[in-house]
Fold this protein.
Amino acid sequence: MNRSGMLSGLVLLLQIVWVLPSFAGMEDDPLLFAYFIDEFEWRDADDEDLTSWDLQGWIGKDLKKFWWKIEGESVNGNIKGTEIQLLYSRAVAPYWNVNFGFRTDIKPDTGNDWAVLGIQGLAPYFFELDAALFFSDSGQIAARLEAGYEFMFSQKLILSPEIEINAYSKTDAVNGLGSGLSNFEFGLRLRYEFRREFAPYIGLIWDRKFGTSADLSRLDGKPATDTQLLIGVRAWY
């Protein structure tokens, strides 16, 4: 299926799901929206000017929402890659939602389109989890697990450790991805909330590639392990 066909199918699916009858007693459930700059940061990356962003937003009601997520980075002012997700989210339990939809990767030379199936929520002890499977139109299957926690030193000073793990069903040398466990990333960000809606932060990212992904990185002249200092801002509206 081509990209326009997948997008059209997703829009039609969302229209069908959206008009399904709501749970009893939800007639007064208001339509709300929010959007977030979860991360917008500059990273110290081998004398390169690297900027990274993670933007999210949603519109919907209490139990069902339409989400959009945009992640990407630029190197020396040139966009290296952008990932866009369009998702329908449905509550299945307190603090837990099932997501499905469409993802596209936009890169200068290549990219992929994916179907998305995931779950997102708040685990015991207040760990935030986001797990997803991605099914590419080229036959690739990817899995991603993200987890985070917040240590509150005060009402304004907050430390956020986060991890991200990625795995792939087969090697994609063009995009530098190896089959199996591809990489493990650990991030640590310390932010100060001048207001709940605005918080600058400092931190670091430690990334380790494994297996074929590590080999492909070395062939490209890059190390399999990398540590980057960062400074950024977080905001929501």
